[in-house]
């Protein structure tokens, strides 16, 4: 008789964003004329940079020409893209990452989930709370947790609360931790980590032989020159950290699909039989066996992000969304809402007014203002009473959203 | 201290194809003038159908136009593609599969590996021998096996030998099996399964509450009208089988990346607490959490495979490769080689001459004829003494390969 992975049965309800989609669809069905503005899921709205469009057209033409056609590419990605990343994202910031430490993939969501394939079953795993749900759900699926309590906290995971009270910067864990997920600029709170904060984590990881899974999907939004873009800007991080990056938000690739993961070769782990094992080798084996590389066309598009035109155009995109974030911040603050993030990140994190719970405020905003945001509690128990708005939208919609928001809370 | 997944350490050497690439690269480095013809990895050589090129250009343009731009798509794939698949691949053959039972993905290799995420740890798992290595390696990684013996057979897996002696059609297992991988048209042997053979398996699975993982990546190569293209052509299969399909070989998508997996809603499994669980729901949850959908551009390309022009052009591609397979078959038979497959499949499976082992014959062919094939033993212990040639190449190269092959074996 076939056995299923019963860990799936521990998962609470649907994954957050499908649940939001369900409520929105149901509202739209019963209010077909409502002009709903979506600031929920962090999905971009502006078209791809023209440099990317041009490069993808050229790649499509190659795929139609026998002499230039490409079949299976390297599972790890093409050198033309890995080289550009090593140079632009790392060498330019004084960080030495070699091209073959970079694995091109079709998404950071996939990679942050799949990375568990190479880790053992008995790690003590820490996450911030609130947190991007994928880190938690994939650990539940992998059997690394017990059941969830009534607030959604899974037994066995170590939650590090981040709230206004601790300035959204967690204390170091006071119990042993083997794997720690960090995301900066943070999703959902929009806060960043200083060099000092990251140094503390790297030192902790080195001391405790722990692994940092560093999600830097939003690094392009960092405007403050003092804030590190990569954890590898911290001395010694290459021995303790894997970093996840994405083209989704910096160049609008959410529907085009390209990301990458850095696994330094100096990242070694000791096995139960005292053998030294390279995580780079394990991830390479995992990717060679369970992945077949990213579409050639898409990789050429990602490469074009690094061209002079691509850089200029993607920086303009980022500046546009950051201006949206500023308008949201200022508009909400003007009516007395406590707002966090939104400076070095495309997310604005706010305290719900009038003691609304996160989901009640979601329904209130949807029903009365036809605005969609993301309930803070969907990101974890400590997100209760908070709410996330995304700056990914047209200027017109952002301005209209601010007006509607101000109207219902004042 | 971070624990790694030590099951990875049980894996024998590299994954087959990287090992072949390594030997070929090393040969080419020392023989820079050799005109090597590659009939190893099953990678297409002809450009994408023009209908696909046209559709992808249009999709790229949409991604550059704000009013048509697409961000995150449904993790399960766009309805425009799922509907076409349901109609053309299933309804047209009298099989009722609904569009929402079809999950679009970036590759069958990924799906056949990832499917283990939703299955339990204690299944008795059967594979044919020889077999596509991904089925085995992903089970090793997931901890479903012990170590490998000297012939590469992993403890705990049930191997069903397929050789010339049993006409490459395995007996039903004589020990309990909960999960069975079947691939037809078969990789690597190129043989197909009749309706009777598949019916026997479906009946076995129904009787033993087992799950069939049916890999139909090569179905487009079936020329015999009596051979089923889908396992769902067998009555009752929707209650016991998951089917994997790909655009890689029928439309040349190996470097473009699109595939799909069918998980019927009637596929239910009983848990240890006697609950009925739907594998469709589990897979949907897995994909929503760990995957973000296939590039919009690529999905539009795949959709175009089903247009009248796309159908005509992809059928011409298939016919071209099948003609290559015929030339290989006939050319090898003419010098007394025993050849199997290559009629309803793009692979020709041959008995190595002069009692060569598979890897010795690989080196012989590479060194003396500058031909690359795949050693049968790379697919499993029972593949020893066999060798696979792929029909994916230009006509000129196939004709030249036949000549060179004939020269060294006669």
Describe the structure.
Chains A, B: Its EC number is 2.6.1.83. Chains A, B: Residues 35-405 form the Aminotransferase class I/classII large domain. Chains A, B: It catalyses: (2S,6S)-2,6-diaminopimelate + 2-oxoglutarate = (S)-2,3,4,5-tetrahydrodipicolinate + L-glutamate + H2O + H(+). The structure is a homodimer of 410-residue chains. Chain A folds into 2 domains: 6-46 and 309-409, Aspartate Aminotransferase, domain 1 (Alpha-Beta Complex), CATH 3.90.1150.10; 53-308, Aspartate Aminotransferase, domain 2 (3-Layer(aba) Sandwich), CATH 3.40.640. Chain A has 11 helices and 15 strands. The first copy, chain A, has helices spanning 16-30, 50-63, 79-90, 108-114, 133-141, 195-208, 279-290, 296-304, 308-333, 358-369, 395-409, and strands spanning 37-38, 102-105, 125-129, 157-161, 179-183, 211-215, 241-246, 259-262, 268-270, 276-278, 339-341, 347-351, 371-372, 374-375, 386-390. In chain A, the strands form 4 sheets. The first copy, chain A, has a 7-stranded mixed β-sheet with strand order 2-8-7-6-5-3-4, with helices on both faces. A 4-stranded antiparallel β-sheet of chain A has the order 11-12-15-14. Chain A is globular, with a radius of gyration of 21 Å. The relative contact order of chain A is 0.17. The model of chain A has no long low-confidence stretch (mean pLDDT 96). The interface between A and B is large, with 84 and 84 residues.
List the helices and strands and how they pair.
The structure is a homodimer.
Chain A: H1 16-30, E1 37-38, H2 50-63, H3 79-90, E2 102-105, H4 108-114, E3 125-129, H5 133-141, E4 157-161, E5 179-183, H6 195-208, E6 211-215, E7 241-246, E8 259-262, E9 268-270, E10 276-278, H7 279-290, H8 296-304, H9 308-333, E11 339-341, E12 347-351, H10 358-369, E13 371-372, E14 374-375, E15 386-390, H11 395-409
Organism (chains A, B): Rubinisphaera italica
Cofactor (chains A, B): pyridoxal 5'-phosphate
Pathway (chains A, B): Amino-acid biosynthesis; L-lysine biosynthesis via DAP pathway; LL-2,6-diaminopimelate from (S)-tetrahydrodipicolinate (aminotransferase route): step 1/1
């Amino acid at each position: 008789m076939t056995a299923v992975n019963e860990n799936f049965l521990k998962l609470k309800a649907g994954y957050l964003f499908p649940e939001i989609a369900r409520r929105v669809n149901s509202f739209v069905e019963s209010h077909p004329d409502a002009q709903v503005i979506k600031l929920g899921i962090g999905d971009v709205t502006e078209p791809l940079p023209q440099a990317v469009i041009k490069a993808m057209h050229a790649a499509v033409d190659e795929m139609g020409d026998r002499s230039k056609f490409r079949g299976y590419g390297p599972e790890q990605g093409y050198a033309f893209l890995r080289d550009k990343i090593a140079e632009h994202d790392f060498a330019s910031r004084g960080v030495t990452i070699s091209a073959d430490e970079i694995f091109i993939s079709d998404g950071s969501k996939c990679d942050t989930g799949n990375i568990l394939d190479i880790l053992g079953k008995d790690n003590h795993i820490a996450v911030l709370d609130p947190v991007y749900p994928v880190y938690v759900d994939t650990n539940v699926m992998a059997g690394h947790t017990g059941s969830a309590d009534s607030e959604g906290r899974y037994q066995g995971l170590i939650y590090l609360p981040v709230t206004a009270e601790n300035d959204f910067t967690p204390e170091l864990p006071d119990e042993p931790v083997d794997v720690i997920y960090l995301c900066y600029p943070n999703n959902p709170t929009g806060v960043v980590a200083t060099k000092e904060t990251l140094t503390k984590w790297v030192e902790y990881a080195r001391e405790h032989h722990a692994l940092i899974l560093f999600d830097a999907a939003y690094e392009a939004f960092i405007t403050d020159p003092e804030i590190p873009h990569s954890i590898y800007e911290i001395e010694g991080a290459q021995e303790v950290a894997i970093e996840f990056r994405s083209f989704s938000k910096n160049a609008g690739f959410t529907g085009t699909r390209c990301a990458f993961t850095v696994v330094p070769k100096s990242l070694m782990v000791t096995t139960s039989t005292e053998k030294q094992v390279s995580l780079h080798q394990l991830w390479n084996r995992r990717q060679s066996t369970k992945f077949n590389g990213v579409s050639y066309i898409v990789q050429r598009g990602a490469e074009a992000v690094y061209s002079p035109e691509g850089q200029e155009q993607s920086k303009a995109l980022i500046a546009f969304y950051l201006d949206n974030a500023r308008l949201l911040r200022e508009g909400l603050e003007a009516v007395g809402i406590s707002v966090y993030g939104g400076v070095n990140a495309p997310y604005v994190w706010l305290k719900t007014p009038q003691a609304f719970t996160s989901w009640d405020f979601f329904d209130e905003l949807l029903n009365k203002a036809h605005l969609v945001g993301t309930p803070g509690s969907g990101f974890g128990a400590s997100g209760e009473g908070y709410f996330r708005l995304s700056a990914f939208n047209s200027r017109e919609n952002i301005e209209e959203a601010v007006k509607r928001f101000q109207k219902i809370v004042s």
